[in-house]
Design goal:
The structure is a homotetramer of 390-residue chains. Chain A is an alpha/beta fold and 390 residues long. Chain A has helices spanning 20-29, 45-54, 66-74, 94-103, 118-131, 145-155, 191-194, 199-215, 310-313, 326-347, 359-377; strands at residues 7-12, 34-40, 84-87, 107-111, 135-138, 162-170, 219-227, 238-245, 250-256, 267-272, 275-280, 286-291, 296-300, 383-384.
Chain lengths: 390, 390, 390, 390
């Protein structure tokens, strides 16, 4: 590891009052392979400055907005210049920031969903492609090792072709708006900030992405119902769909913010011909493996005697039976991104093989939202998802 | 209880090789309030005779077919005559047997689904109505006390109007036909015996019925996909639907026989505005109650300190914390049916207030199957369920 | 099965107000192989008569006390005479009733614990031995098929020699006496009825018995602490012990009535050199099997694909995934007892090979109680259990 | 927060091949309030140097042994000098390192158990007291917010006086030595490094500490059995004890490394007069609260609607329903230690009120080990734990 250096990260967003920015920072720096060197933490310069102070960042590397940051940091020499920009702002600003970062030659790690709308998504994809730079999307749940273990089991063919997928993400925090607001999440109810789609954009895209990653297939069609039970915003607060996947599988997808009393029970079950897997976000260190021929198994994180592939085993930081969680999932994504940057610098390699969602995944996520809205507007007809062949 | 006598039951079907007939008998007689007095256990007279012998029933009350049974038993005097006939044959014979039993003046308890098709269902409903007799359908899961407790919680208005329902019944035993056949269930793959619909008829009707009972609402529309993954029969072995309920709620319904590795995890979750319930058939003595304002509670069978209504508490036979199961669920239905017969004899009262499914429930179940088939055939369009207003 | 008849049972105890008597009746008759033909349901003749009426038993076979019953029924001819007597009275009357029944030539099935004290236990064992008759003790939990499956796994040697056993039975219903009384259980707090020992006699004997059955070994020594936290009686309401088993294993045993909020979570875990088992009474249809070399498995009742031995599979009455419970556990014991009686009548065979606890098991249970009391009185010294070599 | 700076940490131990050192570093730096400024990561200078390189630490602050580190770092000015030393070496070196660090005026955070033996423990306590410096012991599990929530519930008196405690820590990784070695843990089998006691020292002290923290009481007496099932070392690999607590409660304590197939299921249950709590390390974001008067509740991390105290709620970094784990538990301890240092610098305040274990806790832990060994050697007699009144 001699002569290797920490990868340098600049952050846009994530200032005082943001909860996800802090988590990105913890995840990015957990393994000591990435250091935060600069930031524009708010579009309000004073808030940005104070936010930098909060985290002991030198004021010379704290900026009043992302344009200033990118302009100044791009001029720094090779020993100081950030390797990548982490974008942790609301959806509507992902596009301009990512565009500007790529134009300055920075790799980009961006919070999900990709952009505010499909048009931006396609434009961004074009920019990423022409830039030749690395672009990662932080679909956090892909950072859980057991999710990749699930993907590997299904990909191994051990259970035959995939037939059935159930994915559900039934939150309850918006069931009575105002009652359980969460932290600084009000922008999530503002279509100006989120783009079209409410729950479907915010958490439905996680469900979509998780299905595609675990199965290795794309969702090609949806037959959807979107509902607005509350007056929290003009957007859907609940969505359900029948889904069809490439290769003949089908299933159901649920995402909701009005399942009163539920916290965050994202869950996926996938069945092949002779067995299947189940993973639940609230017990992320377990993976249930079912089989037609044998009792159900519960794989446990961190021990090779528990049926884990060596590559999965290597992802755990803690001794067997000691839980890792959400921050470690972020850390796994950032660590893989840092490693990709190192490989990129050596030989131009890409993100392939990592569990960091790509720009293509992001585009399909946006297309999924559009298809959900279209299907629901058309009374639940089967609707193609654009780019599902990508 | 003085001068009260046991209610007398005749059984049609349930001979050697039938598994459900034996369970009906155990359930019916468990509490000692019903006695089996006669039977036509098979359409093969020799099998019927041997089956009677197996259960120590006197040969004078064992018949070679249901016509003989009904004719002979109808002639018996008031101290011997059966009060009701229990029909535990494959679906296609429910109608003729029930019709004949009603014509002879017997109350009828019938295994689900109601009939082979909608036409028979409507005709049977007419006969039941004109007969003035009691007709019960053994949708077993309604016999679990915790299911009725769930219904009561939702009906109390404690959680506001119902918004969302998820019901799922993902079995796996037919995922590779021939591999895990179950016991004597091959007729369930024969459309001549089951009527239209495969999994949707066999277990989808349970899911439909459970939703309607627990919510106190009717499913009015479905948007369905039916799939045949195996060559087990010409029928669907998997179904999924978006559903809409009277009063504005909606949700999803899944029933499948190809979820490899799953055993029998029927599960229902219902959410109102401020909380909801979850019940799972494989842990039937628990009821999870979630709330926006308080931690989730796990109600336990059999103890009044655990939030159960006194009427529910009274349904349990065992001391708190000692499990009751499937046979006891049947017993609860039969016990209520026996009590209804006693009230009927006194004052003509009906099944109302019990958890035994009625002829109307049965008709709606058949209409549900038809709507699922129609919706799927029409590419997943929203399709009305007939009689949902009943 | 031709020419076979139902086994005939007389019952002593179990009248109005008794809860366990009703459960014995349901369990005994569930499979249709045993019929209740007579009873002395209470030592109060009027209550006994009314209790017989409650269950539709002809008054000619209902008696005012057990002496009358045994005398009269012993005179009946071979087509009417009971095969065995089921004793479901409080502990202090087990001995005189069992003695009288054996003297009249009846086999005996008796509720646990065996007797009021050790002296009675030894005397009863002598009587059973000299009578040549069958004597069974209803340690209910041995009736769960998964318990026998656990025993078979450990006996197979698959996990090497047994090293460690944890058994616990922490109830909470007596934590504040008077608050949650249960049903007609006050005699359980009266040393005149129960004999020495409170919780340790009532439920500690279940824990003792379960350990011995599952491991196939005897508990040879205890190092105990008994506590009386409440003024519910003069007896212990809580017990904990270090235990040693024959063959070198050791472990812990807990039984308590003051673990406030617990219902009935009897649980046993046993570990051999390379794996182990866990079974919990409140989820009796599951068996967790752990191994050093493989992920934990959850065996499910009722399906041969789930790792169950054929003999265990045959014990289930319901299709896979449909729960069986406490009454079925009783039924399994009574069914094995009825089969033993049939074999006895044919060839004098005994109870061996069944999961019905024997008179020897009962004696060891009483010796266990005595050793617990002695150890606790001696400040927790290691104390031998008498007859542990039997 | 203006003018506040990061707290500076020096580390002794935790070099290449150490797993716990890396976890301490991640935990200490997770929240960005502590920076690692120097280290002696190994007693082998070359390994120490390479280990510093691995984590991008400047070579001028990496030392060949702890003496060099303490000497050199003690001379640094107020802008560079470490605030505290984190000791993450095997047990036998805790004492000399801690002593030397205190002598140089550094606060100390030390991995558990406190020292190699009781003599060292008492001597170290004396040094800590006379130094006036802060000393924390990383009993990790106290860092889980739900553990403190459990402590608060019990301390509130809501459930009356504590009566019963069950704590268990049954690992299985050493059940067949050599088979599942874990990572670089061989020193844990070497009495020269660990001091007396095997499992009881390594994980039994965690169980002891958890009981005392959650109940707010001290374990005063034990009645123990220690067993060596394997030839892994000369030490015990399994321990069980009856325990007595101040104030009249009692219970059981289990710690083992030979429960084959178990991973790391540390679990505690505590019962008061009218209810109790249950917490399990493998599902650390849940807390089960049982009550005599109400259904069991499952409190969930991170949401104020779930019954958590505001102070507990504030400990979570992630949005409700997103798991935190072992590293976050460490981080909570280090964050509290950093805050204590800041308060100390302001007003000399101590660790009180935090969940960081103190030197007194550490001394009682060592006394517990000694009492366990003594009791077991004396054939299980009740043995006082020294300093239990402290």
């Amino acid at each position: 590891m001699t002569n290797q250096r920490k990868i340098r990260m600049a952050m846009v967003g994530g200032g005082r009052g943001s909860f996800i920015g802090r988590i990105h920072r913890m995840g990015a720096t957990l393994d000591g392979e990435i250091e935060l060197v600069s930031g524009a933490f708010s579009s309000d310069p004073e808030t940005s400055r104070e936010s930098g102070e909060d985290i002991y960042l030198g004021q010379d590397r704290v900026y009043g907005n992302f344009e200033e940051l990118l302009e100044a940091e791009a001029r720094l020499g090779p020993d100081d210049r950030p390797d990548f920009v982490s974008i942790v702002t609301p959806n509507d600003s992902h596009f301009p920031i990512a565009r500007a970062a790529l134009e300055r030659g920075f790799h980009v790690m961006c919070d999900k969903p990709l952009t505010k709308d499909m048009k931006e998504a396609i434009a961004l994809r074009e920019m990423v492609r022409s830039s030749g730079l690395l672009f990662g999307l932080t679909h956090t749940y892909l950072g859980y090792p057991m999710v990749t273990q699930a993907r590997r089991i299904l990909a191994s063919g051990r259970f035959g072709p995939i037939r059935k997928v159930f994915v559900e993400y039934p939150q309850g925090w918006l069931s009575v708006p105002g009652k359980r607001k969460g932290r600084n999440l009000l922008w999530k109810l503002d279509p100006e900030r989120t783009g079209a789609g409410g729950a479907i954009t915010d958490i439905g895209t996680h469900a979509h992405n998780l299905v595609e990653y675990v199965t290795g297939r794309h969702i090609t069609q949806v037959c959807a119902e979107l509902t607005t039970f509350t007056n929290a915003g003009i957007q859907d607060d609940d969505a359900a769909a029948l889904i069809r996947l490439s290769g003949g599988a089908n299933g159901t997808l649920v995402s909701s913010r009005i399942c009163a009393g539920e916290i965050n029970p994202l869950r996926i079950r996938v069945y092949g011909e002779t067995g299947g897997i189940e993973w639940a976000q609230m017990a992320p260190n377990e993976l249930i493996v079912r089989s037609l021929d044998a009792p159900a198994q519960t794989l446990q994180a961190g021990t090779n005697a528990e049926g884990l592939d060596p590559e999965i085993l290597a992802m755990f930081r803690t001794p067997a039976g000691h839980p890792e969680g959400y921050i470690e999932a972020f850390a796994n994504l950032y660590l893989q991104f840092a490693e990709a940057i190192r490989r990129f610098d050596e030989n131009g390699a890409r993100l392939e093989g990592s569990s960091v969602a790509s720009i293509d995944d992001g585009v399909r996520g946006m297309a999924f939202v559009d298809a959900m809205l279209e299907s629901a507007n058309n009374g639940g007809s089967w609707t193609d998802i654009a780019f599902a062949e990508d």
